[in-house]
Amino acid sequence: MTVFFGAVGPRRMVYFAICMVLVVSLYLALDKRLLLTRLNQLSIEVERRIQWWNWQDTPEEISCRAAHNPVISKDPIPNIVHFILLAGEEKEVDMSYAHFLAIKAAVVRMNAAEIKVHTYGLNTANQWWKEIEKHVTLVHVDRNEVQAAPGLSVSSMALAHQADLLRLAILAREGGIYMDTDVYTFKPFTDLLNNPRDAVMAHEGGNRYGLCNAVIMARPGSTFISKWQDSYKTFNPQVWNEHSVRKPKKLQIQFPDLVCPLSPTVFFWPTWAKAHVLYMHEPITPDEAASLRANMTAFGGAMYENQLAFHAVAAHDYLSTLSPKVIQERDTRFNILVSCHDSVRTFARVGQGRDGPGSTTPHHILQTLTT
Ligand SMILES: *[C@@H]1O[C@H](CO)[C@@H](O)[C@H](O)[C@H]1NC(C)=O
């Protein structure tokens, strides 16, 4: 030891220690968000960690959710809603009642300039398609034109990953609001359209481990979308949500000026965690229904103050058994939310093709539906 200290000198040791402290504190100061994201994306006890949340939006989330004045040098994000419905090769996709409800919610509630359904092929004889077709534009996509990650042909990828790439291609070209067919909107996204940043997404999970690609808003040609497309160079089909949820979060940390992150309640709360799925889709008591309806009355049809839509993720077992009758007769949070703002189940009834007695549908909603 004496020899060592003699060689380096105690003064140098002190300098070295000071340097280390400086480097570590610089790293923490500059990259705290990166460090936090890395911790949040660890795949340990994910389900428990995403459910935890103190309901405090960050200052950045608050400003991203707030209405903005038009940006002088930029057009607003186009209020065009894009859905994608894909089926495997040589197959036509059949619109389910759950898909229909999601698209109908956009038709009725988003005040959109246009609603597009992009598909490789759709069964146009389907009853739900017939109900909705005059309100939307059907866009046929050639699967060979969808850009795949290098070394991968699109048709070799899972359909969900094909859809991941297709939505980015659509937004890069046209801009607008992309939504999965299990996203149910409550009101127009007006506040978000003039955002100074060219892309808007929302956090998934109370711990904000990701930005989920089930809803993406962007101006055409957004740099964020093109960086995201480039990231598919490292695409690994085994890591299911890497490029759809975790990657955009990493890009947001790296390039904070390119995308505005919203609070988890805006699109993605409750989450895919089992307890949350039960919370949304299992029957509730009359008291619970009344307290939900009180929120919906106060928040323009939404469950939370700043909520614009709900992603009914991990709920296939429930969505696949939905019918107009189930929506009307079974009080679950989901069923109440997709019905009309008032407690009358008009929204679902329109899907049934008749207008029952006692309907108190606001006039403008009926008009939207019949034009
Ligand atoms: C009502 O909204 C508040 C504020 O957004 C939220 O904390 C509460 O959980 C909501 N209640 C229900 C029943 O959804």
UniProtKB/TrEMBL annotation:
The keyword Membrane applies. InterPro entries: GlycoTrfase_DXD_sugar-bd_CS, Nucleotide-diphossugar_trans. It comes from the Eukaryota. Pfam families: Gly_transf_sug. Residues 358-371 have a biased composition (Polar residues). The chain crosses the membrane at residues 12-30. Keywords: Membrane, Transmembrane, Transmembrane helix. Residues 350-371 are annotated as: Disordered. The keyword Transport does not apply. This is Alpha 1,4-glycosyltransferase domain-containing protein. It comes from Carpinus fangiana.
